[in-house]
Amino acid sequence: MQMQNQENLNKKKRKVKKSHLLLIGSLLVFVGVLVLSYNHLLLLKNQVFSDMLISMSDVDSTDDGKKTEQLEVPTVDNVSDGTVYKEESIDYNKYLGVIEIPKIGLKRGFYNTNSRYNNIEYNVTLVKGSTMPDVANGNLILMAHSGDAYISYFAYLYRLNIGDSAYITYRGNKYKYNIVNIYNVDKNGKVSIYRNYDKTTLTLITCTKNDDTKQTVYILELVS
Amino acid sequence: MNMSFLEKIATVFKYIGSSFLSVELFVLCLLLFLILTINIKAKNKYVNIIVIIIYFVFLLSLGISSITYISYSFDSFLKKVIDYIYFPSTVVYFFIMLFSIFIVFCSMFSNKLGTFKKVFNYAVFSFMFFFYMSFVVISTYNGIDLSNLVDLYKNETLLSIVQVSNLLLFGWFLFTLFYRLFIYFKNKFD
Fold first, then answer.
1. Minimal Cα distance from A29: which residue of B?
2. Per the CB < 8 Å rule, is A55 touching B182?
3. What are the residues facing A78 on neighbouring strands?
């Protein structure tokens, strides 16, 4: 009788432990899924914040009589490559074009240089003086933040290698570019672009990963 | 666009009879329904397993053939959830408050909930109630239009109140989920 009671007690203890183990297991699975999907969730969260920020910047008037909100233009990345660019007069309501880099899951629109949304604090930014992909031997220059802020659209550019592809959709046409060169420059307010002037080029500029003093320049050439 | 309900039903039946594939699909679904219904009495485990496999294979083939669509659907859903957590519209926030009050009533009159869970529910939803009332008071005091999300969330106090309140609710969901899971494991394996 006593042995039976002891056995029942042991069985109860074991069963209680099983439910605890299962709970801990479930928690671990949940945490695991969260850790695995963290980057993707962060990306989605960044998009949501970015969209709301863009909506918030569209202000007509405030209580103290101000008319239009002034957007700050970044002064850090001044680009100079000596090319004489053809001026474009383009009028779009939303995106001027879309950049897509399948390897890092980037797909983001960019605005006309005259747009209030063409600001590195909100979006992938089109640098003034860029030419569009349909201009032969021209250079389309885009820049964005890296890092882990919600506006860091070029955060994963460091994963790209020579030969990787990027696409620009512009006026209904999709242009394919391949990376031909990646190099770092000092962050001193100017970026030197070394490219083949006989090729139609796409240049991507962002801060170098884990180095606050440098910027990384990606040179891509039009393939098709 | 402006079809009556009967016209819509007629259109659906026309589609079912319109091609061999649609007839095949309809018959397959009908068969699955009949098998599951008959199996309620027969209680054959293998039938259930086979039906689960069929549904799983269907989902897998859908996943393989339309991975972009499924991935986009998941992303859109997650973005909406994130949007509701961080920047809910006042309508959504109102329904969140109604839900909180409903949970408090359920806790009050439930015999199954333990004391700890009741106290936890009361604490969380008291805070939710306080946040919501503060939200209404601040927006009224500052003359902010409740239907204008942009104006609403430019106020940092309102934004903080809403986001903390939603994160608290999300935390409550997670805790309740694991609590229920624990109760289930305890009942099943004890």
1. B178
2. no
3. A190
What DSSP state is assigned to residue B146?
T
CATH topology of domain A78-222: Sortase; Chain: A; (2.40.260)
- Domain spans in chain B, listed from the N-terminal domain onward: 5-65, 85-189
Backbone dihedral angles phi then psi of residue A8, each to the nearest 5 degrees:
-60, -40
Residues of B in contact with A30 (CB under 8 A): 178
Interval A22-37: pLDDT, tens: 899 999 999 999 999 9
For chain A, which residues make up each domain, given as ranges?
Answer: 1-62, 78-222
Q: What is the mean pLDDT of each run of 10 residues along chain B (190 residues)?
A: 87 88 90 90 88 89 83 86 87 88 88 87 90 90 80 85 91 92 85
The two three-digit tokens of residue B49, written as one number: 């397993």
> Are B189 and A52 a contacting pair at CB < 8 A?
no
Please report residues of B whose CB lies closer than 8 A to that of A55: 149-150
One-letter-per-residue 3-state SS of chain A: CHHHHHHHHHHHHHHHHHHHHHHHHHHHHHHHHHHHHHHHHHHHHHHHHHHHHHHHHCCCCCCCCCCCCCCCCCCCCEEECCCCCCCCCCCCCCCCEEEEEHHHCEEEEECCCCCCCCCCCCCEEECCCCCCCCCCCCEEEEECCCCCCCCCCCCCHHHCCCCCEEEEEECCEEEEEEEEEEEEEECCCEEECCCCCCCCEEEEEEECCCCCCEEEEEEEEECC
Q: What is the pTM of this model?
A: 0.57
